[in-house]
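User: Structure please.
Assistant: Input sequence and predicted structure:
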Amino acid sequence: MTGQEISVNIPQTLDPVYSNMIQIAYKEDEFTFIFLHQIPAVNQARAKAIVSITPTHAKNLLAVLQKSVADFEGKFGKIATPTDKTGDGSVTTLRGYS
């Protein structure tokens, strides 16, 4: 990963999106992230955004997330994770989708 700085233009019409659940699908040439908002106490979720990236970008994203979480925990303390479940239920992986 490079330390290049780029100018980012965020359109004023682009609204922020809240997501508390994610589905991840992948195939040979891309990873697709489906960001969802799960409605509390209801077995229902609404898709808020779909983002597809290359496998190389997915690996870079993993590295950036690991560094960002480590930095966050260094500043604010360890992030608590659920220990009563084998998976936290907020990520669903779909393999070999079409």
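The mean pLDDT is 87.
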